[in-house]
Write a structure and sequence with these properties.
The complex is a heterodimer of chains A (285) and B (381). In chain A, the strands form four sheets. Chain A has a three-stranded mixed sheet, sandwiched between helices. Chain A has a two-stranded antiparallel ribbon with strand order 1-2. Chain A has a two-stranded antiparallel ribbon with strand order 3-8. In chain A, strand 4 and strand 5 form a beta hairpin. Chain A has 285 residues and is of the alpha+beta class. Chain A is built from eight helices and nine strands. The radius of gyration of chain A is 22 Å and the shape is globular. In chain A, 31% of the residues are buried. With 381 residues, chain B is of the alpha/beta class. In chain B, strand 10 and strand 11 form a beta hairpin. The longest helix of chain B is centred in the middle third of the chain and has 23 residues. Chain B is globular and about 55 Å long. Classes of the chains: A alpha+beta (285), B alpha/beta (381).
Chain lengths: 285, 381
Amino acid sequence: MKVKPVSVYKVPEYPGLEEFLRDPGLLSKNVPANWRNNGIVWAALVSFTLGSPGIACSQKKQPRIELIRIHEHDTGLTIGEFEEAGDSSFIAPLFRHGNGIGAYGCVMIMPPVFITEQEAKQIIINELKKEHLVFDTNAQPTHKVVVKTKKTIWEKVKGKYNTRDTVESHELKFDGYNKELNFAFCFVSKEKYRVFADYEPETSSVSHEDYIKTGEKLRAAISKTNAVNAVIFYEPVPYPDWKDRSVRPDRDQWKTEGKKVAIDSLKAQVADFARWLHAEQITKQ
Amino acid sequence: MHLTLHLTTSCNLNCSYCYSPPAAGGMEMTREIIDQSLKFAIREFDTNIGVIFFGGEPLLRKDLIEYAIVKCKSMEQEEHHRFNFHFKTTTNGVLLDKDFLEFSRVAGLNIGLSIDGTQQAHDVNRKFRNGEGSFQHLDKSIDRLLQLQPCTNAMMVVTPENVQWYAASVNYLVTRGFRYIIASLNYDGKWESRHLKELEKQYKKIAVLYKKWTLAEKKFYFSPFEMKFANHIRGNEDDCYSCQLSKRQISIAPDGRIYPCVQFVKDGISNTAYSIGNIFDGFDSNRERLFSRSVEEKEVCSTCALKKRCYNTCSCLNWQTTGYINTVSPLLCETEQVLIPIVDRLGEELFKRRSPMFIQKQYNVAYPLLSMLEDEQNFVN
């Protein structure tokens, strides 16, 4: 046997990724029946690949019922809806810029890019300053917010290994506070995620982190206090923009580009928050 | 990053195609080497570390698997989950008992089972030292394993001796409940032209099965086909499927020496020329030297129209078959030229028919995550 190079090979008549993505309808129109019938998978599919879900929230003072709808981006159809009881404090909605879900482990997925907690604080403070909103990074609201978190502990009992669910309580330290408005902000960073996300051991080689889910959890915990006005920002966790690329960026290149995308997304979250504050007449424009 | 711990070079089987038969006396990893390997891993790598238990037959040292996992869990808890370990092992299945399966469930240890397909296909190569086939010894554990770990990988090896049952074996494994089938050819085998003709025939039969299952929206993964679809569809990104010789995975021999891939460890003592450092002192210059050689363009392939679809970049396969990490195996060249056109005709047909499963699996970059979410839902329910 010898190595025999092939001189001519007909290009296969199924498209490469770049060509495929020129027709976004191909992905949304061809979905396995099992996925259509599975609400969680379908919502994730919409969120990841068919377009960003929109979230409509009303944030009036009590009585307040928050109606959250998830829309399919291209058709506008409502695909998910739930209600959340409100309270007497102002809790801003999560302003959705960035996927907020990161995955590790599988070689098919680019590693997530994160903003450090310090960087995020600085970005948020600077962006709020542009809106004449001054937040103090050393101050905290008078009322404490305690968040309960489920942790799964792995232990050996009477010679056998087992998992045990425990509940830990941790105080939520805000990243900035404006005393005049009695308004605090918190950024769900990688570090906060480790403390406040409900942890379960991963049994797959792919593990995922849902910053939006954890952000919603913190909102709910703050809401229960009825005493703190707050907004939660979250790690945007961007992915490469496949539609504009013929080749996947290399990992180092993506670390730089992804960071820029993440920072822009966080700035957009802050800009939305400033608009919301004005719209709710919490500040005067 | 994946860290493969070669816990022992001993084995309870005597498979004809084994690439790491034990040296006299065998070698066993100590607990100290495990401790140091884990410390090395968290020092050198990112926050998500896959620990793979390998051998020899790793289940001969269940005690070390248990020790290593306990150590990892305690390191995670001490450091407040600053990093995650996840665990895998590849076993011949003979020692898979109820207690170990229960332990693996609790510990989150993913088990890959070495099984070549039907009993005929399996027993022709995978035998005990007395010549008896091992199929029946693992057959009884399969149902229990799949019940606890529905995503278990079936690791098949196809050789000239069992190629005639390749399609039947894939069919058997999928029918039995395996959804992830990783099939490799034994490139070190004595392949003749009649075997290559048979291989082509078998790939065509598998293509028929693949089409049937995909159109029925059955979820499964069959590595040689998926990889060829992927490297056409995703083009230059196919580097993400390669190990990149020590950049994405390393192997630790029982004595603590680091090797770029499992195949280089061999018996743990006779191939130190390919060691790239040790867990005490870290990597040495051999790591970059071997990596640079592995990515050199292969002159003989430079004009080939299939060079970007081909496994010619797999350094351990090249080394195993030619003795050089950057010299391509003629057998690989032949078998790739058989496989690629069959996969491409299948891809054309599935795309033309707008198969939802084909489209999502091959074109949706979030497919692994979506698939995992679906599995979590299904297994919980």
